[in-house]
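I have been asked to look over a protein record a colleague put together. Thanks in advance; the entry in question is below.
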Amino acid sequence: MPKFAIIPVKSFSSGNLRLASAIGDSRRRALGQALAGHVATTVTDSNLTPLIVTGDPEVVAWAIAGGFQTIPEPGTGLNAAAASGVEWITKMHNRWIIIHADLPLLRLGDLTAVTHETGDVIAPSSDGGTSVLSATRPIDFKYGPASFHRHLPQLDSPTVIARPGMLHDIDSPADLDSALNHPLGSWLGEFI
């Protein structure tokens, strides 16, 4: 079972730019922070230690205030952030897990389904991306559109876990509307 969960967080102020047409900057910033907090708290509740990978000073301050460990993002995007987190973790433990910070429906049972597996695990997002990855060796991260199919061949007979908490990320105004209309996503209403 992994000890840490890598959570890459780009920035609260420049994150979720695709939501700019639906909500203003201050609400989008608050939403980004709340989503990251929801994921980090769920990770903690699953007996994992959140490892926030970021290059943003505001995110670092937020993480430290929340008692979360941080490491610097190399500054070259999500793939490099994931690789940096895996490099840090594999110095101490062989199993790692990466989980994205924009999963409003994530629940303890979702992470339990991942951590109870002994082999490689991948959880797709509903748009063909990758919400969660877990393995025992570094891989070549290829996040972005259709990343699920780019990550899949690199894993050793992976368990694919498709659960609402990991399928539903927030990449667009339609994703936000869908999450708001889901019983587990009603908490997002205060940001809209």
Notes: Strands lie at 4-8, 49-54, 69-72, 96-99, 121-124, 130-135, 159-160. The chain has a mean pLDDT of 92. The longest helix spans residues 25-45.
